Structure of Beta-glucosidase:
Amino acid sequence: MGHLMLNQQFPKNFLWGGALAANQCEGAALEDGKGWSTADALPYGVFGEIMIPPPNDYLKKEAIDFYHRYKEDVKLFAEMGFKILRISISWARIFPNGDDLEPNEHGLKFYDDLLDELANYDIEAMITLSHYEMPLHLATEYGGWSNREIIKHFEKYAEVLFDRYAKKVKYWLTFNEINMVLHAPFNGAGIIEKPENISKTELYQAVHHQLVASASATEIGHRIDPSLKIGCMIAGGPMYPLTPHPNDMMEALQKDRETFFFADVHARGKYPNYMVRYFLENDIAVEITEEDKTTLKNTVDFISFSYYMSYCATADEELNIQARGNIMSAVKNPYLDESEWGWQIDPQGLRYMLNLLYDRYQLPLFIVENGLGAVDTLREDEHGEKIVDDQYRIDYLREHLKQVYEALEDGVDLLGYTSWGPIDIVSNSVCEMKKRYGFIYVDKHNDGSGTLDRYKKKSFYWYKAVIESDGKKLFETEKVDTASPAT
């Protein structure tokens, strides 16, 4: 039985907020000297036929125009009570081609202005150096992260950012969902080739280059300012065995290691033993130099992850029916409901994941993405106010955050929680507006139409109350949560 305590609340210093990616919100695709990025090429030619320039009406070109409207949006985040906003920096806005001799001052100034605006409202920033994008030139001319040359270009980029923003930003992440390179090589590593045509050696060589670049960036950041908190970021979803059959237990263990491998290297500074066997058995020959091994010893200060769903694993090929998920898919769990997109909903899986990671690493954790993508309907209420009644999103987040509270009670050291897409943004891989995550509705649609006006959803007022109450709101009765948004 759950314990009933009157003082159920999150720590006072808990960092509540939201998370955004530059390529999904900023727009201004080539403005002020920005170059094309690999994100601009999605979904128009991931596999060897890059369409650049993309069609004129492609949604990321303008996105939600955060580039010009960030002051309006930051004000709304402040109204919700955000303590932190996770943003990413567009590499192609700083180095338009990736191998430029000098950074683009216009791009650097934009992020200075954004960071200053956040500071005006006492909102901390967390910066992701590379969030599913890199200058397209580095993909087309160098072959993306499969080329060792990219490491030095990333180091230069990281050094510029740390130099420029270290006084303004304490929390940093190197790569977004770094383990997704295995499932989306163009998206994660800029490799322009059909995934089935990429050898495991080339794929893991690209992974290795990213791991080295990540460790090197961590060293650069700590050298510039030792007080910076630099973390890694993985797509986190625990693997449950579909049955208690030992074969399924082993299958789940192996699948979990596909995720943990990336965190293991970041947290422990070396390749885990199980990867040595995996490389041997799969004829994977990764070039790892002695200098690489030294660089990898620059370990992270904390581990962050996204959480949308858990997965199942089975060794039984007949039962291996895949459920859709965030980039990767896995076997469906018969005990769980699913979202409109077929993503299985498992709030307890988040508590499980938090405990799993904390038991394994004993490092502070940060949930940097979690949320519900859904088709939202903007309508007028009885007062003529435009509103989105997204009670389904409130229900989803409430149940997940209750499990976060349980993990805190378990003794997990958790720094904060940033919900994914606190304002509606363009989806990454399929480049559409239909699937919305935000607490703020943006009037923009798949066909590019819309005013870009912002409207507060019902969840906006709910999340504001959760933050204001240090989480106590989560434990109020259903009746309170279904009250009108004005309460």
Summary: Residues 238 and 310 are 5 Å apart (CA to CA).
